[in-house]
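Continuing from yesterday's entry. The apo prediction looked reasonable, so today I'm repeating it with S-adenosylmethionine included to see how the binding region is handled. Same sequence as before; SMILES copied from the compound registry.
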Amino acid sequence: MALSTPGMMGRSCPQSRGVAFSIDDGPLELSVSIGHPELIAAIAAEIAASGPISFARFMELALYHPQFGYYMRAPEQMAERIGWRGDFYTSSDVHPMLGQALAKQAEQIDRLLGHPDPFIVVEMGPGKGLLARHFLSACQRHFGSLFERLHYVLIERSPAMQVLQRENVARWLDQPNRLTWANDLANMALEGVNGLFLSNELIDSFPVHRIQVTANGIEELCVDYQRGRFVDCLRPLSSEALSDRVRQINTAWPEGYRTEINVHAVRWMRQVAQLIKRGVVLTIDYGHVAQDLYRPDRKGGTFLCYSRQSVNEEPFLRVGDQDMTAHVDFTSLALTGEESGLRTTGFTNQLSFLMGLGVEHMIEELEPDSPTFNAAIHLLRPQGMGTTFKVLVQHKGIVSPELDGLKYKPFFESALTAQSAA
Ligand SMILES: C[S@@+](CC[C@H](N)C(=O)[O-])C[C@H]1O[C@@H](n2cnc3c(N)ncnc32)[C@H](O)[C@@H]1O
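Holo prediction written out below.
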């Protein structure tokens, strides 16, 4: 079983914090389930009917098959999967600081927009709804004028996750015009949002295409089903969008090089740009600028699976029972945004973003070395969540906003938009 070095990891789980992990290949492989039986049957049937499928289609079914996908199980099961004792945890499981800082950032955006009524916050992929809860609490407590006009929209495709979200924001459910849900960006009743569109660890959970450099050029890694197991197979690139992005990256990769392309993220960015009338788009995730993500020595890409607090590179095991993710290409998001009417405000990491929003004052109020204090510091660690997580900020309908979250910008815009690593 292949393992990754902590530096490559994105999602947070104890192993990514450096817990030792060693596996004896043979016997363990045999004992690991290939996954949820009904899900495997459904994917195998699709392959039997139409031939090998793209990896993106496989990942879509593994994570989001309406009944058996990883994120689509019962709410109780989902509550166990994400969190300190689950398959992985996110910033909001660690400490409310991110939600609190985002509320502070929203208050500044509200001022720059001239206090629109309503001020709409759209959060896409809210998971258990903890970020929403922390944001709403902080806003209610510290930013009363904004809170009075605040309408929070949660876009979540998993019905189970929506149940958990409702539990976490229960105290605001009966307030008129406070909260609404949609299961898809395209199904939103809103148009022309004035406010803030935010996401944390959404894009890394979009299905990705996988490509490999072979003697024939660049081919797509597709998925076949043979003798009761899923296997890789190579095919020509399956879509124009995929070929276009490969061409744009324009890097001299060595033979055998594998990587991922997130075509879905590009489509998503266009939809978001269309939805925003005046406001800011804030995308938090682990990832890199294209020059770094696609550099020739990153030979195996960044695709990883998370299960029971450890990480592996085996998408064809535990299908439907483990999370799958790939690092985000922030360059493609910034460039697509620019083409679609969003200006790039800046690009930073979580540590600098939180420092810009004054987290030291929040930390000063905590008891040194207490569990809460240590949790808050965990979000800022320069060798961990503080720098693995990046923040892309884009705007529309406001002139060059100077946002507190971007006070310290460790990345220059030229690095964000440069395409080629060659
Ligand atoms: C890795 S979790 C992140 C959860 C949360 N943002 C957090 O930080 O804890 C990804 C979430 O995005 C949701 N999701 C993925 N693709 C989506 C889409 N196209 N539309 C709405 N929700 C989506 C998943 O169901 C899941 O709740």
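Comparison notes:
- The chain has one domain: 6-94+203-417.
- Residues 1-7, 16-29 have pLDDT under 50 and may be disordered.
Will overlay with the apo model tomorrow.
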